[in-house]
Amino acid sequence: MKVSTTWHGKRAFTSEGPSGYSVGMDATAAYGGDGKGMTPMELLLAGLAGCIGIDITMILDRFLSDITRIDIDAEGTRKEEMPKGFTAIDLTFHVDGDVPDYRVWKAIQMGKEKYCAVSDSLKAEIRMHLILNGTEVPHPA
């Protein structure tokens, strides 16, 4: 999967993926942005909640006609020092409907541990590459 991200000046970027949809990102004023899009850290939380949410609906598919609400709140606790990555993420699932609690818990657990590519990717190795003025520049040793 490849996502292309384009700079629009200051701290604003737009990313587009193979789905054809795009999302705007910007930094808050505290980081020199204009706040004209979600921050990348907000998008990370949204991606995690959306991924597990999709998994839950797939796992609970036969109960969906009895479920009237699935809302997911994602709250990340960040480090004080740079880089201010998440040290913990709390997901709160608000589910209404005629579905046994143990089935919802099982779906949440399976989504997080077995199916959600986002939660699994939070452990991924990140490799960097640089192409400067059209020429690939190797990472300094």
UniProtKB/TrEMBL annotation:
Entries under Pfam families matching the protein: OsmC (PF02566)
SUPFAM superfamilies: OsmC-like
Listed InterPro entries: KH_dom-like_a/b (IPR015946), OsmC/Ohr_fam (IPR003718), OsmC/Ohrsf (IPR036102)
PANTHER family cross-referenced by the UniProt entry: PROTEIN YHFA (PTHR34352:SF1)
The protein's name: Peroxiredoxin
